[in-house]
């Protein structure tokens, strides 16, 4: 690598050009609008979180807790397998 290149000044000028911002009449740099884009996946996650806090959801959870405590809650292995398969097929 050569340190004393004759075109070294050109490289310094290239860096200086990127630092030049166009200043308007008011003396401020013009700014664009801020923008936020939320993906469909994020919207779905937000909807699921809102569903967790709904009164119907809380009532259902309480019923399931009661069934588990009493030993009356049973899920068939076929339902579990179906849910697992549908989950993995989505991916």
TrEMBL record:
It comes from Brevibacillus fortis. Residues 34-85 form the Anti-sigma-28 factor FlgM C-terminal domain. This is Negative regulator of flagellin synthesis. Belongs to the FlgM family. Keywords: Bacterial flagellum biogenesis, Cell projection, Cilium, Flagellum, Repressor, Transcription, Transcription regulation. Coiled coil: none annotated. GO terms for biological process: bacterial-type flagellum organization; negative regulation of DNA-templated transcription. The keyword ATP-binding does not apply.
């Amino acid at each position: 690598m050569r340190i004393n290149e004759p075109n070294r000044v050109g490289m310094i000028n290239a860096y200086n050009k990127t630092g030049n911002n166009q200043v308007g009449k008011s003396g401020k740099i013009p700014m664009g609008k801020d923008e936020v884009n939320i993906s469909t996946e994020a919207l779905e996650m937000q909807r699921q979180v809102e569903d967790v806090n709904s009164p119907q959801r809380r009532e259902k959870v309480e019923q399931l807790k009661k069934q588990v405590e009493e030993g009356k809650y049973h899920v068939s292995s076929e339902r579990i397998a179906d849910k697992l398969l549908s989950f993995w097929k989505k991916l």
